[in-house]
């Protein structure tokens, strides 16, 4: 009899280190990008994310820290770089995750 794949165990074992960054002297922590809930897939375009998509992803990643982060002025270019570094932390851009591949 074939064993049943236990996705719960895979999720626990695949957990990555959180991503931390500073802005205006405050430390913020987000889960690795691939740790976001699958529900985010219906809210953003991961292949070619717009500025709104990036904001949605950052808001999801920051969770309860979003209000504090959002209150700090930062140039748009900094948000793009934050997004790239968050993806780089995981080693695979969000849109190129093996779990999202059609092949």
The gist of it:
With 103 residues, this protein is α+β, with helices and mostly antiparallel strands. The protein has helices at residues 7-14, 51-62, 66-70, 76-90, and strands at 19-23, 26-30.
Structure description:
The protein has 103 residues and is an alpha+beta fold. The protein has one domain (7-95). The chain is built from four helices and two strands; from the N terminus they run H-E-E-H-H-H. It has helices at residues 7-14, 51-62, 66-70, 76-90; strands at 19-23, 26-30. Strands 1-2 form a two-stranded antiparallel sheet. The longest helix has 15 residues, at 76-90. The two termini are 28 Å apart. The model is unreliable at 97-103 (pLDDT under 50).
């Amino acid at each position: 009899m074939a064993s049943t794949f236990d996705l719960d165990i895979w999720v626990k074992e695949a957990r990555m280190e959180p991503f931390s960054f500073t802005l205006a002297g405050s430390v913020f922590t987000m889960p690795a990008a691939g740790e976001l809930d699958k529900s985010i897939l219906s809210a953003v375009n991961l292949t070619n994310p717009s500025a709104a998509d990036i904001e949605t992803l950052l808001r999801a990643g920051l969770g309860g820290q979003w209000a504090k982060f959002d209150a700090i002025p930062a140039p748009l270019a900094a948000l793009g770089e934050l997004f790239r570094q968050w993806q780089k932390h995981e080693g695979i851009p969000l849109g190129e995750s093996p779990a999202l591949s059609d092949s």
